[in-house]
Amino acid sequence: MARSVALVSEESAATLGLRPLTARSVLASALLGEDPPELPVSHLVALAGLFGVSPNGARVALSRMVGAGEAATDGDGRYRLAGHLLERRRRQEASLRAEGGPWDGTWHLVVVAAPASPPAHRSAPVPEELPADIADELATAAGPDWNHLRDRVSERMAAGIGAYQRQRFRDAARILRTVAEVVPNAPSVRELLGLSQYQQGHWKAALGNLEAFSTLTGSVDQHPVRMDCLRALGRPARVDALFEELRKGSPEPEVLAEGRLVLAGTRADRGDLDGAVRLLVEAGAGRLVRNPAERHLRQWYVLADLTERTGDLAKARELFARVAAADPDAYDVAARLDALGPAPKRTPRGTRGAR
């Protein structure tokens, strides 16, 4: 029986002065409020739409949750909680069922003392000086005003880096925006600002800053993230075009593999599961390697998910098992293998037709 989930729409949030929920927050809240904690993808997409999240944005967020081990799908169009979010729901259930004993009349007073929180932009440790390459980049971007701006810009850049490293992406974006206003032509500022916005699901804003980074540097390193933003914004043709740019840019193997995964996800979003699988297989994503790197695990996992959705359960089981053998704690691979069940036993040769 489903429970009601109290969420605030984007319009109401603006009226109340609250920050709007990200796509992940909406989807996680919806699943946390269900019993059992699972819903069809159509319901999740429709619910996310009530909070200003596009259908593609919701699907991308679901894919990212699966990749992070926060959700799982059996390939039947339904998503369920997994990992730490499932554990969080269990704790919530336990707290609702808590039973108290008879009161003996005793009161307990607990005092918790916490230090006052400093301003968010000062919460991350600020190094004595920025790395030389970033300091030089900021100085070049600021030009003759650098002597005047040095202390303020350096401090805020360091604070933005610290916030990002601590995964305080909202704080990082807020701090780095102030730096970008002063030195808009500093590539590292636009890159880190774009990544902070991407982590929050602010696809359009992230895309603009990462495009600026690519223009300023000629680098294709952030093309996979740009592709993922375009995927969320429902622009598959631009995803294809950007992958071609990436491929021709001779990127590192990890960057090219990530871009290919985004392209495969885009094709799957459009219902072309066979095309998504073919893209990865032809690129060698399913090839067995002796000492797999992180990119190999990600490729095996995504390929396993896609093959399961096409109905090839044996191949999906093989790929998930390969991931688990390399890293048993990777993503939600243990749950995916458990859901698939054991491989069917093979009939020994020579026994067929025996009576």
Tell me what the structure shows.
- Helices cover 62% and strands 3% of the residues.
- It has 355 residues and is mostly helical.
- It contains 18 helices and three strands.
- Strands 1-3-2 form a three-stranded antiparallel beta sheet.
Short account of what is shown:
The protein has 355 residues and is mainly α. It is built from 18 helices and 3 strands.
Provide the residue-averaged pLDDT.
82
| Whole-angstrom Rg | 24 Å
Helix/strand structural class:
mainly alpha
Give the SSE order as H and E letters. HHEHHEEHHHHHHHHHHHHHH
Q: What is the quaternary state of this protein?
A: single chain
Q: Order of strands across the widest beta sheet?
A: 1-3-2
The shape, in one word, is: globular
Q: Show unreliable segments.
A: 1-18, 117-127
User: Biggest sheet, in brief?
Assistant: 3 strands, antiparallel
Beta strand count? 3
Percent of residues in helical segments?
55-70%
Strand content: under 5%
Distance between the termini: 50 Å
Count up the helices: 18
